[in-house]
């Protein structure tokens, strides 16, 4: 039997990072920092939009091509995900600076 407490579900860079509050908290973001996911079902651009927050600061969104399953599970009240910063590269274009990994957390 595996002792894994979490399993990688998805990896991506934050969509829209340059349009939200990423630059305000960029110096506080470090690899391993926990991020929060919040659905935005009334988003006019994407009905499956899932916003990414660091504390109260909106950083952007899970990319549209990777958000459907996460959005549907969160909308049903199934909160089994843990999002963390996996990569930071200030030399990249703003939209590619922050890499995120989303885990499915295994219940104990």
TrEMBL record:
Residues 9-104 form the HIRAN domain. Pfam families: HIRAN. SMART domains: HIRAN (SM00910). Coiled coil: none annotated. GO terms for molecular function: hydrolase activity, acting on acid anhydrides, in phosphorus-containing anhydrides; nucleic acid binding; zinc ion binding. The keyword Transmembrane helix does not apply. Gene3D superfamilies: 3.30.70.2330. Keywords: Hydrolase, Metal-binding. This is HIRAN domain-containing protein. It comes from Tenacibaculum soleae.
């Amino acid at each position: 039997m595996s002792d894994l407490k979490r399993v990688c579900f998805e990896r991506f860079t934050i969509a829209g990072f340059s349009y939200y509050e990423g630059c305000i908290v960029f110096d506080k973001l470090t690899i391993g920092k926990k991020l929060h996911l919040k659905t935005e079902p009334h988003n006019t651009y994407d009905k499956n939009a899932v916003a990414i927050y660091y504390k109260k600061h909106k950083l952007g969104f899970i990319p549209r091509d990777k958000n459907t399953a996460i959005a549907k599970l969160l909308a049903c009240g199934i909160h089994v995900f843990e999002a963390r910063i996996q990569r930071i590269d200030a030399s990249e274009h703003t939209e590619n600076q922050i890499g995120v990994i989303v885990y499915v957390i295994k219940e104990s």
